[in-house]
Design a protein that fits this description.
This protein is mainly alpha-helical. It has 18 helices and no strands. 42% of the residues are buried.
Length: 404
């Protein structure tokens, strides 16, 4: 009876994990409900000794638990209010999805189904964007959580989340085009280019645009090694020759970044890039005053407000600096910052041990997505981007050569 129960629960868990991947790009409530159901299923499915064995035998899972533990300790000495501290801790708790899923996903088939489910859900979001652009579907479809469609042709997500998801989807499509040995490679290549056009011209999220452009540097180096240098040289020469024509193809928000920073004044004009620079500078100032242990989990709003009273800043109420590196350093000090970097290092190392080399490349793309995106956003706090990273990381790293 116990065996039959565990088999039944495993089927439920497999379905929930696959559906979680499908729902990443869809309404946030879908993922939230699935997130809770996965936690409940993990708790009631038993076999804890095997689960914990899988977790503690996986260095990537252990490194994640170390960071979560430091966030928990950070609540104890936080200079923020109890509500602020616990709210931030609950946001960081999504990191537990990584070791939880690592302890649950035990077959390559579930990995494959989960990745395909993500591709299907994200592709649905992609085509909704195109259908809006072509006026095939109503422009306000899927905008229940947003006031209007001024951020671009999007649905369910804001432009930052949309383009971060699309940049990784583009990465997956390009990889599939490279690995595909049949004429299907042209379908994957076409989808990759459609995704690139969408995130560069139909939706104006600069974080995703920078990530996508970074992939155009990473993939040639990964596939061709030193030979990629000649391709980069040819591309650079072409850009210099045809720059006047190509300038019109560069997304306007990317072109305006430098201008936004120069125009930004703390007592005059609010610009997205300028206010970020102001937050970075002020957060660094706070970090210098407590570099070892930081101020504790969820403490930035209080400390930033105190600093803003003594400086001419545009924003007084800043809960996070839109930079995960600075936020982690601020909250947990150099110890937490090292743990944050160590987590990504262990995950990158684990990607080299995956049985499926293609899956290992996807894991590298996922890590790069988070590393680059975290320069401009506090991605571990964000519901969509954080769960996207945690769920896929858990799935990709759940079946390595060490637990084959």
């Amino acid at each position: 009876m116990n065996k039959r129960y565990q088999v039944f629960m495993q089927k439920i868990i497999n379905f929930l994990i696959i559906f979680a991947c499908f729902s990443i790009a869809l309404p946030t409530a879908w993922m939230s409900i699935t997130y809770v159901l996965i936690l409940i299923s993990w708790t009631i499915s038993g076999d804890y000794s095997e689960k914990f064995k899988r977790i503690f035998n996986n260095p990537a899972a252990v490194s994640t638990l170390i960071l979560v533990g430091l966030y928990g300790i950070g609540v104890i000495y936080s200079s923020g209010t109890p509500n602020q501290s616990t709210t931030f801790l609950m946001k960081y708790a999504k990191l537990l999805l990584i070791p939880i899923i690592i302890s649950l996903v035990i077959t390559k088939k579930i990995q494959r189904y989960s990745l395909n489910a993500f591709i299907l859900g994200a592709s649905l979001l992609l085509f909704i964007s195109y259908f809006k652009w072509l006026n095939i579907i109503p422009i306000d479809l899927g905008l229940h959580d947003m006031p209007d469609n001024s951020q671009g042709y999007l649905a369910f997500k804001n432009r930052i989340a949309h383009n971060i998801l699309m940049s990784f989807l583009m990465f997956v499509f390009f990889c599939k085009a490279k690995f595909e040995k049949t004429k299907l490679c042209w379908i994957w290549l076409t989808l990759a280019l459609l995704t690139f056009f969408d995130l560069m011209f139909l939706v104006g999220g600069r974080s995703g645009q920078v990530i996508a452009l970074s992939f155009f540097l990473f993939l040639p180096v990964y596939f061709y090694g030193k030979k990629a240098i000649k391709y980069f040289f040819f591309a650079l020469v072409s850009i210099l020759i045809f720059y006047p024509q190509l300038e019109h193809l560069i997304p306007q928000r990317l072109l305006n970044t430098t201008q936004e920073i120069s125009e930004h004044k703390s007592n005059n004009q609010l610009t997205s890039a300028g206010i970020r620079l102001e937050m970075y500078k002020n957060t660094l100032h706070l970090i210098k005053q407590s570099p070892l242990f930081g101020y504790g989990t969820g403490a930035l709003r209080n400390e930033y407000n105190k600093l803003a009273q003594t400086q001419d800043t545009l924003l007084k109420d800043v809960p996070n600096p839109h930079n995960q590196y600075l936020l982690t350093f601020f909250e947990l000090g150099i110890i937490g910052f090292v743990a944050f970097i160590y987590m990504f290092y262990k995950q990158w190392s684990a990607s080299n041990n995956l049985i499926d080399l293609q899956l290992g490349l996807y894991m590298k793309g996922l890590i790069l997505t988070m590393l680059i995106g975290s320069l401009f956003n506090s991605l571990l706090l964000d519901a969509t981007e954080g769960r996207f990273y945690c769920v896929l990381t858990g799935i990709f790293l759940s079946f390595t050569s060490k637990n084959e």
